[in-house]
Amino acid sequence: MSYTNDKGRDDEMTLQQLKTFLAVCEEMSITQAAFKLFITQSAVSQQIKALEEEFDIKLFEKRGRRLCITAEGKIFRDSAKEIVENAELIVEKLKASKSLEVGKLNMASTHHLAQYLLMNPLLEFHKSYPKIDLSLHTLDASEIKSAVESKTVDIGFMPDGAAVFSPHLRITKIYEDRMALIAWPGHPWREEEKIKPSQLSGEPLVFASTPSSINEIALAFLKRHHIHIDTVIDVGNIDLLKEAVRHRVGVALTSKLAVREDISQGSLIELPLSGIDELSFNFLMLTHKEEEPSYPSWAFQKILKGYLP
């Protein structure tokens, strides 16, 4: 707190002066206050004098050998206590924030990313920092972008797209995915070295309309290669798509991220489709350019990196 007093002198009240004043109030002795604060008696006297001159008041007076607080001193004491307590509370909150004992983390993601990329990092974050209030909202891409721009959420996760760019956003590529042609383990094509796109013509194909971005990539690939599909089965989402493929309803073009564990466990296989490398796409992390990452945001991003290739 700095200002020019009515005597034309620049003064500055410090937190240490207030603590010294309160120590004198508690001890009612310059000597005892100095002993308590591990400073000299002259330092205590100088700080009290500086406060009195700054506010043009008398904080203490001598009555015989006793030191007594004045009426103005009592008013000043109440305000000084509040200032010091608030300052100490700020320090405590900052320490707690740095140690992640308090705080909030709000995020938004597409359902696909939340389920297949973010779930394990989220579980680890909650286990490591159980006192942090954690929220993950599943939204579509345009809603995620708007939520980060408006600072409604701290971090957004979404697939790449032309509409992602914004002068207000910091955009980071976090994962490169690609499509995979999947089938059940006993599929007749399992021994083939390469499968031409034309071989898909007439083959029953399972689709998942959600997420739409994955579905659009699959349809665009079929159109680009002039592939006619006789039987199309739309099961709504990728979990049902995988179940339908396991039950031999048909093969499917879907996100490799969504089926990597199933392939690893052997419940599904990936067929070697020619041209599959052209079906790659990125997943992005969005943060606001004007916002420095909070401690919870920084901690989550650090955990997430451990799960990325």
Nutshell version of this structure?
The chain contains 10 helices and 13 strands. It is an alpha/beta fold and 309 residues long. α2 packs across α3.
Describe the protein in words.
GO terms for molecular function: DNA-binding transcription factor activity; transcription cis-regulatory region binding. The structure is a single chain. This protein is α/β, with parallel strands linked by helices. It has 10 helices and 13 strands. Strands 5, 6, 7, 8, 9, 10, 11, 12 and 13 form a 9-stranded mixed beta sheet that branches. Strands 1-2 form a two-stranded antiparallel ribbon. Residues 1-10 have low confidence and may be disordered.
Question: What are the main properties of this structure?
Answer:
13 strands, D-Maltodextrin-Binding Protein, domain 2, single chain, 43% helix, Arc Repressor Mutant, subunit A, 309 residues, 3 domains, alpha/beta, disordered N terminus
Per CATH, which architecture of the largest domain?
3-Layer(aba) Sandwich
Number of helical segments with 4 or more residues:
10
* SSE class: alpha/beta
Give the biggest sheet: 9 strands, mixed
Helix fraction, binned, reads 40-55%
What is the element string, with H for helices and E for strands? EEHHHEEHEHEHEEEHEHEHEEH
**How far do the termini sit from each other?**
51 Å
**Oligomer category:** single chain
Radius of gyration computed on alpha carbons: 33 Å
CATH topology of the largest domain: D-Maltodextrin-Binding Protein, domain 2
Shape: rod-shaped
CATH class of the largest domain: Alpha Beta
User: Spans with pLDDT under 50 lasting ≥5 residues?
Assistant: 1-10
Strand content: 15-25%
Protein name: LysR substrate binding domain protein
Domain HTH lysR-type: 13-70
GO molecular function, one term: transcription cis-regulatory region binding
Family: Belongs to the LysR transcriptional regulatory family.
